[in-house]
Amino acid sequence: PMYGAGAGLLPELLDGGSTQVEEIHTERNPLFPGLRAPEPIASNLDALLSLVAGGGFDAGVANDGDADRVGLVDGSGSYVDQLRTFALLVEYLLGARGLRGAVVKSVTTTAMARLLAEHYGVNCIETPVGFKHIGPVMMREDALIGGEESGGYGFRGHLPERDGVLSALYLLDAMAISGKGPAELLEDVFAITGPHFYERVDLELEAGANAAVKAALDAASPNEFAGLPVTGVDTTDGWRFLLSEGWVLFRLSGTEPLLRIYTELREESKVGPVIAAGQELVGDALA
What we know:
The chain is α+β, with helices and mostly antiparallel strands. Helix content is 36%, strand content 22%.
């Protein structure tokens, strides 16, 4: 847990079995010391990453302040990003458990979910960002799983809302029934989808800059990003440019003065250049 409501839950739920659990940051502290926000992303998980990297652990999991999101660390102490974690959960439910039902994903999360859905013959439905959009679709479609880029995932038979504790239990169950760690499970996913690489940058905006950024993106018609041709544009939520080998998306935060740039690509070496090209595209509006 990250000093929040998840403290004590996983050790209690796993007690009495063969799983050994070591818990850190167990005290509830609304100041979330050392964290900009209790978001279970790599930059906030130094203590967990170091602990797992020290040896003796098969994986690490983290819940955010209210335990509705999960972060995953593999046995080497490397962070597994939220998009790959969602793909692991989709593969666990459709592949390992053999369940069937639609997959619901926000526009900012992984294309691997769609590829897995296609592989197993189920629908993949895309929504704007936020579980306020995902949850209703899950109920309407009796969907198996819904997920968003923040690390929040919901499941059929439980709640059409994010639950970080159940997400952690499902990830641990995927490991238990397969005898594989997160890195090996990802290789199973990649055997179906191919590797995908993700990055997000948050650009702080000056007061009043939203309008200039929006105007710049409305007017933008790039032919390529870092040499990857643009094959389409989607404005479901923000501005997503579909590329020959992935996508890049620009989205103004609804809660903070931020422009977020997301990308997911099949080639790792292109991630940095695509992000840089995205920053260049809006550079004048940010100046």
